[in-house]
Amino acid sequence: QVQLVESGGGLVQAGESLRLSCVASGVRYWLAPMGWYRQAPGKQRELVASITSNGGTNYADDVKGRFTMSRDNAKNTVYLQMNNLKPEDTAVYYCNTVGVSSSSYWGQGTQVTVSS
Q: Out of 26-30, 68-72, 107-111, which region has the weakest mean confidence (pLDDT)?
């Protein structure tokens, strides 16, 4: 059964850190390139970080140097370490495969709110 469960979000002040986790269940996610996406109110969902099966990463320009994505294939889990958070990072964060369409299955996401 395909399932994505994100956790670790919360309310923090600017400059603080959070670590998000996503447990992926189902053959679709086994060693697939994975991404962390976010959707802020009134905006489209965007890809902020991605990781290949062997750990190669890419980041959006506005999170580069602050966010670090990692994965533990044995646990079917991907992580997003977010440091020096900014109010503009406020969004619901989701994990999914890279290139997935908006009409595909998505988990419930985890809310990140950064106050100034």
A: 26-30
- Mapping DSSP onto H, E and C, the string for the chain reads CCEEEEECCEEEECCCCEEEEEEEECHHHCCCCEEEEEECCCCCCEEEEEECCCCCEEECCCCCCCEEEEEEHHHCEEEEEECCCCHHHCEEEEEEECCCCCCCCCCCCEEEEEEC
Task: Please state, in angstroms and rounded to a whole number, the distance separating the CA atoms of residues 56 and 106.
Answer: 23
- For residues 38 and 95, what is the distance between their CA atoms, to the nearest angstrom? 9
Q: Which long-range contacts (CB under 8 A, 24 or more apart) does 65-71 make?
A: 67/36, 69/36, 71/34
Q: How confident is the model at residue 109 (pLDDT cuts 50, 70, 90)?
A: very high
Could you tell me which residues come within 8 angstroms of residue 110 by beta carbon, excluding any fewer than 6 positions away? 6, 7, 8, 9, 20, 92, 93, 94
Q: What is the rounded average pLDDT for all residues in the chain?
A: 94
